[in-house]
From TrEMBL:
<feature type="transmembrane region" description="Helical">
    <location>
        <begin position="110"/>
        <end position="129"/>
    </location>
</feature>
<feature type="transmembrane region" description="Helical">
    <location>
        <begin position="161"/>
        <end position="180"/>
    </location>
</feature>
<feature type="transmembrane region" description="Helical">
    <location>
        <begin position="288"/>
        <end position="307"/>
    </location>
</feature>
<feature type="transmembrane region" description="Helical">
    <location>
        <begin position="83"/>
        <end position="104"/>
    </location>
</feature>
<feature type="transmembrane region" description="Helical">
    <location>
        <begin position="16"/>
        <end position="36"/>
    </location>
</feature>
<keyword id="KW-0472">Membrane</keyword>
<keyword id="KW-1133">Transmembrane helix</keyword>
<feature type="transmembrane region" description="Helical">
    <location>
        <begin position="404"/>
        <end position="423"/>
    </location>
</feature>
<feature type="transmembrane region" description="Helical">
    <location>
        <begin position="342"/>
        <end position="365"/>
    </location>
</feature>
<feature type="transmembrane region" description="Helical">
    <location>
        <begin position="429"/>
        <end position="451"/>
    </location>
</feature>
<feature type="transmembrane region" description="Helical">
    <location>
        <begin position="371"/>
        <end position="392"/>
    </location>
</feature>
<feature type="transmembrane region" description="Helical">
    <location>
        <begin position="136"/>
        <end position="155"/>
    </location>
</feature>
<feature type="transmembrane region" description="Helical">
    <location>
        <begin position="42"/>
        <end position="62"/>
    </location>
</feature>
<feature type="transmembrane region" description="Helical">
    <location>
        <begin position="262"/>
        <end position="282"/>
    </location>
</feature>
<keyword id="KW-0812">Transmembrane</keyword>
<protein>
    <submittedName>
        <fullName>Uncharacterized protein</fullName>
    </submittedName>
</protein>
């Protein structure tokens, strides 16, 4: 029982707010079922609250168990049996007890309600293990938003169909099988990847957790890794052909930022554009949609890369010792300047990315002021990128500090974007855009130059970060 209790406490220890919130929702749902009369109304309200709490809890539970189910963990005595006992206890808590209580109170449709609760729990668990599972349910939500009358009719027919219950149970079983298969499979740990790689597929999310990737994710990774290898080989060949300081910086960039070459950036923008196009066409094609907000989203997407700098450079400290010995700089400041110059390329990359997404948004939403959106996005993405790179390069080393700094940068950048939209709209492209560029780019360049001086002054660190 001690091992089962530890598994139960694992999500609450790693995410205390989630543990408190989920169990408060469980108590609230039981209270609604017992105290609200008639009990059918209380059960309807309680089922919704319980389903929401169960989804959140099992999403966090899957995230923590995915990190705990490492190859070496399965060497523990009877680990699989205790994991199965914990799963049974969890199902009894979130599905069995509420269903038995509802059955004792005479609530109608208890088997169907229990099946829906089980499906909500399994959905949360599956999405925590395999993120792409959420894409399976997204079309259903869009369809329900488009045709609420049809959705209501389907629900009413499903309540009286004898096939609904077995189909729900079968769907829950399939989702559970889909989630447990990669989690319980014992495989060798994959090769380490650069913490500064430009993918968002979960490969560098944790330094000590083997990621679980879908077949589609592995295919994308293969494409990007092949492009990165080719770019590195071309840069190395050019440097050997004619060594120069510029080609040396390119080599360092290819090493630190493997997925930030032209081909990989184009592929990343293309993949993102496909999903953004589907989302805008299907979900946001509305007559009163404010197209200007597309630029704000594009800037946020571009800035989402910079928090990786602080985490990645901290995790790469032991590996950077090899780079230091290879470069053999005359001074420590020269080595620090080389790293800063290599990372500076992320600013124009972020600007190009933001402009590409903005152009896509302009085309999809038929924006009335494309020039204003492009101008403001260009200025704000460049200035925001300089500030974000500066603060994440020399900012706090702890997780909370980095999150606070990132929140401040994002809030400030969004405020600057909307202020720029108003300024250009009020004063015109020349005066308004010029004033916006003077203030935003001046602040960004000043922040970056100050951060660069501070980074050059610091001594290189090669010790592994504390856990």
């Amino acid at each position: 029982m001690r091992a089962i209790a530890q598994l139960w406490l694992l999500p609450s220890r790693q995410m205390p707010l989630l543990g408190v919130l989920a169990h408060l929702l469980w108590l609230t749902a039981i209270g609604c079922l017992v105290w609200i009369t008639p009990h059918a109304d209380g059960a309807a309200l309680g089922a919704g609250v319980l389903a929401m709490g169960s989804w959140f809890w099992h999403l966090g539970l899957a995230t923590t168990l995915r990190g705990a189910c490492q190859p070496e963990t399965f060497l523990l005595p009877a680990f699989r049996r205790r994991l199965a006992a914990f799963g049974l206890l969890d199902a009894v808590t979130w599905v069995g007890l509420p269903a038995l209580l509802a059955l004792a109170l005479g609530v109608p449709h208890v088997p169907l309600g229990g099946a829906l609760l089980l499906l909500a729990a399994v959905m949360g668990f599956a999405m925590g293990v395999e993120r792409w599972v959420s894409l399976l349910f997204w079309p259903l939500l869009v369809l329900a938003g488009w045709m609420p009358g049809l959705a209501a009719a389907i629900v009413q027919d499903a309540l009286h169909s004898p096939l609904t219950l077995p189909l729900l149970l079968l769907l829950a079983l399939l989702l559970l099988r889909l989630a447990l298969h990669p989690m319980l499979r014992v495989v060798d740990r994959p090769a380490d990847t650069s913490p500064l790689e430009g993918l968002s597929l979960g490969r560098s999310a944790s330094a000590d957790t083997a990621p679980r990737r879908s077949a589609l994710g592995r295919r994308f990774e293969g494409w990007f890794d092949a492009i990165a290898q080719q770019a590195m080989e071309r840069a190395l060949a050019r440097y050997r052909e004619r060594p120069s300081a510029a080609r040396r910086r390119t080599l360092v960039r290819r090493l630190l930022l493997p997925h930030d070459n032209a081909a990989a950036i184009g592929l990343r923008i293309t993949v993102m554009a496909v999903f953004a196009t589907l989302y805008v066409v299907v979900a946001l094609h509305r007559k009163h949609f404010n197209a200007t907000v597309v630029g704000a989203y594009a800037v946020l997407i571009a800035l989402a890369r910079f928090p990786q700098i602080g985490r990645g450079m901290q995790r790469m400290r032991p590996n950077l010792a090899d780079l230091y010995l290879t470069l053999a700089p005359a001074t420590r400041a020269e080595y620090q300047q080389t790293l800063a110059d290599a990372l500076l390329v992320l600013v124009p990359i972020g600007t190009v990315t933001a402009l590409a997404y903005t152009v896509l948004g302009i085309v999809l939403t038929h924006a009335a002021q494309p020039g204003l959106m492009l101008l403001v996005t260009l200025v704000v993405a460049t200035g925001g990128g300089l500030v974000a790179l500066a603060v994440h390069l020399i900012g706090p080393q702890n997780t909370v500090g980095r999150q606070l700094v990132n929140a401040a940068v994002l809030i400030g950048t969004m405020a600057t974007y909307w202020a720029g939209v108003w300024l250009v709209g009020a004063l015109g492209y020349v005066f308004g855009g010029g004033l916006l560029a003077l203030l935003t780019l001046g602040f960004g360049l000043g922040t970056w130059l100050a951060a660069q001086r501070e980074y050059r002054r610091r001594a290189p660190l090669f010790d592994a970060p504390l856990a």
